[in-house]
Amino acid sequence: MLKSFLLALFPFRFALLLFFFGLLFLFVRKERLAKRVLVVSFCILFLGSLSGFSGRLLFNLESRYPSFDVLIQKENLENIMYIVVLGDGHVEEVSWPLTSQLSDEMLKRTVEGMRLHLQLPHTKIVVSGGKLTKKSEAEVMQELLVSLGISADDIITERKSANTYEQALFLKPILRQQRFILVTSARHMPRAMKLFQEHDLQPLAAPTAHYVLSTKSFIPSLRHFQKLEIALYEYLGLIKNAFLQRTEHESSN
To answer: Quick one: 88 and 115 in the same domain?
Structure first.
């Protein structure tokens, strides 16, 4: 309930809500209040549409971990047995190809997992994600990988998790204390790494699906608003995880 409430107050929706109230105040002839509300609404819309503002917030998340390059990794990758790919949503529409059924980010995550597997053929791909429709995210990713030529014997599915915390929890019996490669979106990687490490797991970050190439554009665009809301969602997730960890620590003492 709280999560839904916070999402409803994300900048774009909040700015539109303020704009509506501004017009309402104009209608009832409260002009001074209406002007203030409309100015605040405009400022939120303008700042959120600038890459220099929204892009910077997202870039700070995406730049925390470099891309995973098998050729220049210093770690001994021969002992890496698993490449974990986290799901990110899909739609089930049989008239669409699999590449259209996966969300853009989940498609990129799946392809990145496949790319790393082809470079490290001794590994198995672990696809993780529960059911949003009749099929789980893991099943859809598995279907795509098999259709692209990956052997079903090289794929392990985790089909019960509903969020990143549960993915770490349910994958722990599979991964145990072994190092593994973790594939997820660059903006999601800081939160995912923290959650997996809190479960005493040893992930190596392999970020993909980057959004921000430059933060120097000052041309307003609604695309930048999307980046702002994606960044805020991740920061709220990090704050929530830190709060829960602190609460758990205090209760254990």
So the answer is: yes
